[in-house]
């Protein structure tokens, strides 16, 4: 579907689904929460902050005097790992399962909160022995295994902000992030299992380290047992240094605004943004929203966020939110079709999962595979379903509820971003009569709106730009090393108001439907990618003179990456070989997730008189549509020529 068709489909969607009466009767949150927060927003967050154990109390909920820089829970002190682990053990929950880990190959581990306390303490002691100090940044490049959580919490425990780099990124991407963040210690694994095979991680780190002379230690978890190169003096096995540590470690309390982590995310320029989250507000925001949106009952729920810890969804809803709430979670290492297409449903049946949270891309893939696959498993334990990462089309929403949710479970479509840290717009499962495809309204304590170009709220039935009008606890504090970009990207368009970069619509009832990015950021399978970043990768290849990248609508992945490339004279005539070569080049520059679906070799690109590439027209071509208005082009016949070239190819 094109974006226009998406908007059309969303506009025609009129079904609503009220929560089941029994769900409402037992729900954690009632409609009263909206009133409470509307009457006293900061008082509401003050209440929510009581979910956290503070080593020293805060004196003020919010300091916004240096806007857009916020300070939440001013003067408070806490330790994030203590809040996620130790306090639960102290409260007698040491035997509760924190994670059911399911390896791709079928190996399993059950990790209780007591196990987690021991492992995190050992890892923290090891980091201290390796000379990591409070404030030092540690990079983590890992598969989806329990040690990834141990490593993150060990960092949090000693106040060393982590920066987790998704395991699908390339050596170049690692090096960029490590350099930008000033990292000296990297934690990785030999490899992880992906589609039934061990896939290397350490080797990728080794390559990245060639341009990272400041990294003095690479700590390596043994996961697959595959061969690895070893740099004496730099590389250390996790099992050599962590296993022999004491499981006693006293967590130190840090300021509420102490940096917890940096997560890199693509923006509209070639350089990823280092989004900084701090400790107190982030934990309050993730813990409250996890409890409210997923109606978490920690003593009985088995919760599963089927995402990678390398993205913010994993940080907030596999690690910090669920652990702060003493939840039992499932962690799965591999892909949904290994070794068979029923793998997720087998896992849900096995652990009697009660809540599933995943991306629309996954749901659309399951639709394609057919409903007969989930139908073979007992999914009756599920009581709530969530969606995140991209707009969910009504058809996928309905399918999800019907074939996974047994036609009874509420479905919550949750809108948020890496920058937000926590869910901001979502139904409340015991309160909201949901509409398929709508994130509905801002959560209690969040003030969202849809603005027109002039910065005025649009009326019902109208579209515009999604904004957040008041600060929230889990919000980013700045961009690492680039505060100017922070202010410019989010706060300049509408002064004092957070500009999300998404288009949205208010329907006749005033409910919010998020439509998608309005900038040069693509969303492919729920992953954020920058057109400019991929263009830079392409033009860094000798054969390329110019490149333009657009996201075209795609039935399964939401968007797909379509590249238009002008080759240098000397490289012309290379045919398919050069296309393969360029695809490989993007893989080494950024990672496999950024590899274009198609690379179209063209002789020119549509440009305005001022030389700006008109991506809109390229999108029309990629989506096989009659190109729109091209009168502002310097040469209006260029589009027809490109169409000819593309269809001839
Ligand atoms: C962008 C943020 C935060 C989780 C993972 C993505 C899109 C996210 C929804 C939704 C429509 C959504 C937006 C947003 N998005 N959730 N429920 N409905 N669009 O994080 O990589 O920071 O991407 O994802 O376009 O701006 P991210």
Automatic annotation (TrEMBL):
Segments forming domain Acetyl-coenzyme A synthetase N-terminal: 31-84
Domain AMP-binding enzyme C-terminal residues, every copy: 533-612
Any one Gene Ontology molecular-function term assigned to this protein's record: ATP binding
N6-acetyllysine modifications at: 612
Binding site for Mg(2+): 539, 541, 544
The entry's keywords: Acetylation, ATP-binding, Ligase, Magnesium, Metal-binding, Nucleotide-binding
Listed cofactors: Mg(2+)
General function of this protein: Catalyzes the conversion of acetate into acetyl-CoA (AcCoA), an essential intermediate at the junction of anabolic and catabolic pathways. AcsA undergoes a two-step reaction. In the first half reaction, AcsA combines acetate with ATP to form acetyl-adenylate (AcAMP) intermediate. In the second half reaction, it can then transfer the acetyl group from AcAMP to the sulfhydryl group of CoA, forming the product AcCoA.
Family in the record: Belongs to the ATP-dependent AMP-binding enzyme family.
NCBIfam families, per database record: Ac_CoA_lig_AcsA, PRK00174.1
Full protein name: Acetyl-coenzyme A synthetase
Organism per entry: Gordonia phthalatica
Gene: acsA
